[in-house]
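Lab channel / #folding
Pinned by the channel admin:
"Please post every new chain as: sequence first, then the structure tokens as a reply. Keep commentary short and put observations after the output so the thread stays searchable."

First post following the new format, from NK:
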Amino acid sequence: MFKNRLFKNVLFRWMPHKEQSICEKRLVNVIKRFKVDDFNFNWDRNSCYVEFTYQGEGYCLEHSVDKAREKGIILRNGLDCLNELTQSLEDLGMIIDRGMYDFDKWITGMKQSPSPSTKESPEVEEEFHIKYKSLGKQKTSGEETIALKPDPSFKNYEEDHPSVKRAQIK
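Reply from TO:
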């Protein structure tokens, strides 16, 4: 397709950065469309998130390659996740523009979880570890667990079935 090697290298070096900037601009535009001033977003190798504050409440939208794979959607990386999330927010913006519901009605289920400072107290965590400590040696991956005792042994099988002979190894 591309005969000039230099052109091909320049094109492929340019495309990912262009895709990233286009996605980020689209996200900024759609967030501003919802009249949200304070927001933060990031994407990494296989996930992305968008955090924002709307009417004093914190909200967080997350997407990942694993979540998409569970639904049968194939995404390559976190930038693809961010593109999907941005597209979903744009679709939500179009629905809101049609006048079906307000933005706050749609995002009520996306409230951000409590911060790590409100985590369980250390006493409860210590109690959990005491109750559920290890029971000793764990089985290795090569071992198999036999749920029930085997019925007859193979010694009795040879006695009960004389017509079936096992091969003798010499």
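NK: The chain is about 45% helix and 10% strand.
TO: also worth noting, Helices lie at 5-33, 65-70, 78-97, 103-106, 122-131, 154-160.
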